[in-house]
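Course assignment 3, question 2. Fill in each field.
Student: A.L.
Task: Predict the tertiary structure for the chain below.
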Amino acid sequence: MLTAVYASDADYDFIRKEIILGARKKHFAFSVKDPEDMRFVEENIRSAIHHHCFTSGLRVQPILFMKKQRRVGVVMMSEVSPGKGGNEIHMVFVGHKHRGKGYGSQMIDLILAERQDVAVFARCTVASQCMYEMLERRGFEYQYTMKDGFRVLLRPRQVSLVG
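Answer field:
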C-alpha cells in the first residue's frame, strides 16, 4: 500500500533526478541541455516544496508517494490557471527503480478518489502515450491538442446518485 505525504526539502534530489530522467525521454517540455530551462525547473521544484506554488503563482500540491519508507513517485496537482482554481494533474512520475509495478496507476487512483466531486484536467506529451492511455482507462476524455503538442484530457466531475 502506498502512502501519500507532501514533499519536503529531503525529497528535492529525488524529484529533480526523476524529472531530468523523464525529460530526456521527452516526457516533460524542457531541455536538460538548456541551463535556463534547468534553472527554471529547479526554482519551480523548490517553490512547490516550500510555498505550494510555482514561480508563476500557480498553486500546487507536491504529493510524494512512498512504500515502506522508500520514495516511489510524485504527483503534482495544480490549479488550472493562477488564482482561478480547478484541478490539473500537472506532473506525474514514478521513480525509475519502481516502474512497471503498477505504482503510477495506484498513485493516480488515490489522487482521483479524493477528487470525485470535481473535474480534473491533464496534459500529456506525445512521448507520454502510456500515461495518456492510463488516464483514458480512468475516465479521462481527449479534449484538444495545444500548439506545443500537449494533448489535453478531462475527467468530468463524478456525480453520485447516492444520498
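Instructor remarks: The chain has a mean pLDDT of 90. The first helix runs from residue 12 to 24.
Grade: pending
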